[in-house]
Amino acid sequence: MAKVTIYGTQWCGYCQSAERLLQRKGVTDIAKIDVDQDQAAFKAMAERTGRRMVPQIFIGDLHVGGFDDLSALDRGGQLDKLLQQ
């Protein structure tokens, strides 16, 4: 299973929804990077993604975007393929 990284905050409902969706898909190891109190992590996320909103989700090295993007991949049948890489 591909490594999954989520940049997010503890209070973000979309971050929690993304994590639940991934867990339903069988992902047990999610690297969570909390950018709420860590300015260096926030800056790294913004530089890596070009975005300043959370969550920002990576499957392996592929930036898939936020929760809406992750959900769209799931609905389109592409998420399982990405997770199996």
UniProtKB/TrEMBL annotation:
Q: Pfam families from the entry? A: Glutaredoxin
Q: Which UniProt keywords apply?
A: Cytoplasm, Electron transport, Redox-active center, Transport
Question: Which domain of life does this protein belong to?
Answer: Bacteria
* GO cellular component annotations of the record: cytoplasm
Give the signal peptide as a residue range, or say none if absent: none
PROSITE patterns (UniProt xref): GLUTAREDOXIN_2
The answer, when asked if Magnesium is one of the entry's keywords, is no
Chain ranges of the Glutaredoxin domain? 4-64
What are the protein's GO molecular function terms? glutathione disulfide oxidoreductase activity
The biological processes this protein is annotated with in GO are: cell redox homeostasis; cellular response to oxidative stress
Q: Which family does it belong to?
A: Belongs to the glutaredoxin family.
PANTHER family in the record: GLUTAREDOXIN 2, GLUTAREDOXIN-1-RELATED
**Role according to the record:** Has a glutathione-disulfide oxidoreductase activity in the presence of NADPH and glutathione reductase. Reduces low molecular weight disulfides and proteins.
This one is known as Glutaredoxin
Organism, as annotated: Herminiimonas fonticola
